[in-house]
C-alpha cells in the first residue's frame, strides 16, 4: 500500500487507487472540492485516471460560498 499525505495527514492508499476513488473513500463525492497532487491542480475529468503513488501529497480544498 502506498503511503501518501492527504492534507498533511498520513494515509495508506490501496495500490493503484485513483483520485476519484480516494474522494469516494473520504466521503467527499459530489461536493465542491478541488484536488492538487504534489502542488499541481488535477482537473476533475482527470480524477478517474490519476493514480496515486508512494509519497504523493494530496491537497483537498473545499469551495466556500460567501458574499
Note the overall shape.
Answer: globular
- How many domains is the backbone divided into? 1
Helices and strands, in N-to-C order? EEHEEE
CATH superfamily: Beta-grasp domain
How much β-strand is present in the residues? 25-35%
Total strands: the figure is 5
Rg, nearest Å: 12 Å
| Low-confidence runs | none
Largest sheet: 5 strands, mixed
Question: What would you note in describing this structure?
Answer:
The chain is mainly beta and 67 residues long. It has a single domain (3-62), classed as Beta-grasp domain (Ubiquitin-like (UB roll)), CATH 3.10.20. It contains 1 helix and 5 strands, in the order ββαβββ. It has a 5-stranded mixed β-sheet, with no helix packed on it.
Précis, in short:
With 67 residues, the protein is mostly beta strands. It is built from one helix and five strands. It has a five-stranded mixed sheet, with no helix packed on it.
